[in-house]
């Protein structure tokens, strides 16, 4: 049966992998751990491994064009979710820059 590898990998391995990633993301974001660029980069890299391999599996083993586009769409969405830690780090970096600018502006001359 064509498409079983891509179907299995996308919906039974990549989706749980991404769900676990989102739970870890929520836990780390709750405790404000994404100030570290290294942690954010490593977490994004590890979370992106599943969707990238899922994209390759979908491109290699697909049943028809509709299934191919479904697998590409799902894996691309999960890849975008894998980049959430980098976005959270960018938010922390901007907030720190605004706080530093506000502190410099309010400092006595």
Task: Give a written overview of the molecule.
With 109 residues, this protein is mainly α. 84% of the residues lie in helices and 0% in strands. The protein is built from 4 helices and no strands. Helix 1 runs parallel beside helix 3 (65-82), helix 2 (37-60) packs antiparallel against helix 3 (65-82) and helix 2 (37-60) packs antiparallel against helix 4 (84-106). The mean pLDDT is 90.
Secondary structure elements and pairings:
Layout: H1 4-30, H2 37-60, H3 65-82, H4 84-106
Helix pairs in contact: 1-2, 1-3, 2-3, 2-4
Strand content: under 5%
First CA to last CA: what distance? 75 Å
> Mean of the pLDDT scores?
90
Largest sheet: none
Give the quaternary arrangement of the chains: single chain
Radius of gyration: 19 Å
What is the tally of helical segments? 4
Helix and strand run: HHHH
Helix % is over 70%
Number of strands: 0
Question: What structural class do you assign from the helix and strand content?
Answer: mainly alpha
Shape: elongated
Report the uncertain regions: none
Descriptive labels:
109 residues; mainly alpha; 84% helix
Summarize the structure.
By secondary structure, this protein is mainly α. The chain has helices at 4-30, 37-60, 65-82, 84-106.
């Amino acid at each position: 049966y064509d498409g079983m590898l891509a179907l299995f990998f996308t919906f039974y391995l990549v989706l749980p992998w991404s769900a676990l990633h989102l739970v870890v993301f929520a836990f780390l974001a709750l405790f404000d751990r994404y100030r570290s660029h290294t942690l954010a980069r490593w977490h994004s890299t590890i979370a992106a491994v599943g969707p990238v391999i899922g994209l390759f599996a979908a491109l290699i083993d697909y049943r028809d064009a509709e299934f191919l586009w479904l697998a590409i769409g799902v894996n691309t969405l999960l890849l975008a979710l894998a980049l959430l830690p980098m976005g959270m780090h960018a938010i922390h970096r901007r907030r720190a820059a605004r706080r530093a600018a506000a502190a410099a502006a309010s400092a006595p001359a």
